[in-house]
Design a protein that fits this description.
TIM Barrel; two-stranded antiparallel ribbon; 10 strands
């Protein structure tokens, strides 16, 4: 019989930089129907040998307790870092904050016995029962966000197809594009997968819904109703993302039956700059819907996860000032992984002082430790890791600007002026 891990041993392994709670806790349905476990794990999905596991060729159980994820769990317990988890390791080196630490320390704080139990279950049986599910049923989306990629937004995929037809150079810079991504698929409407999912729901206490745009997905209300009918809703905490182009009243009504509901607002800049980034968003509509949703009482609570990028980093403080008007909303920035030319460290060096000024102002405006750590990380990236992909940035920006008839110069003139020289 294998030795049992203690809570202190698990905490020590988390602190040492290796152990993460996510592969012991979270099943993820990735966009495109692949099985996974973490949005920061830089792989398209779990595999059996060379075969990518998805809802059509494998069950949740087969993927979740399969060879690849079990190797990841074993390596973590043996003190080894995971190659495809490098994003978290990099963040920890520069700021001391990462999703690995946030998830692991959070579980240790709120449900330490469950963390210990999951690790010891795996140590004894080489299996784990997921207690959290991150469900991305569809890429159906009504937005075409600048920092998004066509594989997670049907509208962006359709637009990309049109831009490539008129501007062939766009194909050389856009990432994660395939004509197949223009097809609208909702895996939550597939009967066999839904039956498999429902079978695995009864041990789950956290459900995350992401997109695409969750408010458009027809599969989510029936799943919420299933949880209510099975009398398990009161045991489940839900995270539900919204871009605030609408308020999804039916989903919100059903969500009111769950133990707690975290609404995550997708807003990446203040005012018209948000419209530019999150095209074809309209700021007045977003703000009106925001205030409608904020009027909800228990069990709802609210978070926003803005994405730092070249377009908004010089105006970051304006977004922080806006959220000061809504103190019930927690601000937790979400790092951009790709495309690299939109990351803040691709900001032309002559504009870095403006970004530092905005971030410094933001520090004075926040009393959140997490936000402060994120701001430090942004400053580190601007100070230490600048790259030069300005030509790609210009090609990408110009092509979308022309297609949308929305021009960078009207929103971020400082950046537009510098890019004109490329």
């Amino acid at each position: 019989m294998q030795n049992q891990y203690t809570e202190q041993q698990i905490k020590n392994m988390v602190d040492s930089g290796t152990l993460c709670s996510v592969p012991f806790r979270t099943y993820e349905l990735k966009q495109g129907g692949n099985h996974g476990f973490c949005c920061k794990w830089m792989e398209p999905g779990l595999r059996d040998g060379e075969t990518l596991l998805n809802v059509n060729n494998s069950s949740i159980e087969e993927a979740w307790n399969g060879q690849e994820i079990n190797k990841i769990r074993t390596d973590m317990l043996e003190g080894k870092q995971i190659k495809s988890c490098y994003v978290c390791y990099q963040e920890e080196k520069s700021s001391g904050a990462s999703l690995r630490l946030q998830e692991s320390n959070g579980w240790l704080e709120w449900e330490p016995k469950k963390f210990v139990s999951a690790v010891n279950q795996f140590n004894q049986t080489s299996t784990v029962t997921p207690s959290k599910m991150d469900l991305r049923f569809s890429t159906l989306c009504n937005s075409m966000c600048r920092m998004c990629t066509p594989n997670v937004s049907t509208n962006l995929a359709k637009e990309t197809q049109k831009i490539i037809a008129s501007t062939p150079a766009f194909a050389d810079v856009v990432i994660e594009y395939d004509p197949a991504y223009t097809k609208e698929v909702d895996y939550g409407l597939e009967e066999n997968f839904m039956a498999d999912l429902q079978k695995n729901l009864h041990g789950v206490n956290k459900l995350f819904f992401l997109g695409g745009e969750t408010t458009l997905m027809k599969s989510i209300p029936p799943l919420l109703q299933y949880c209510i009918d099975q009398n398990i809703a009161q045991n489940i905490d839900v995270q539900y993302s919204m871009n605030l182009t609408n308020t999804a009243p039916e989903a919100l009504r059903l969500l009111g039956n769950f133990r707690s509901v975290q609404i995550v607002f997708s807003i990446d800049a203040y005012g018209k700059l948000n419209d530019y980034i999150r095209y074809p968003s309209h700021w007045d509509t977003v703000k009106t819907n925001l205030e409608k949703v904020l009027a909800l009482g228990d069990p709802f609570w609210f978070v926003t996860s803005p994405v730092p990028m070249v377009y908004n980093i010089m105006h970051w403080h304006k977004l922080i000032e806006f959220w000061k008007e809504y103190p019930t909303v927690q601000v937790n920035p979400c790092d951009l992984e790709n495309p690299s030319y939109l990351k803040i460290n691709n900001l032309p060096k002559e504009l870095v002082p403006l970004a530092f000024k905005s971030l410094t102002t933001s520090m004075r405006l926040t009393d959140s430790h997490l936000m402060m750590e994120k701001l430090k990380y942004m400053m580190h990236e601007l100070n230490e890791n600048l790259i030069n992909e300005h030509k790609k940035l210009k090609i990408y920006t110009d092509a979308q600007d022309i297609h949308r008839n929305m021009y960078l110069y009207n929103y971020v003139p400082e950046l537009a002026t510098v890019l004109e020289k490329c």
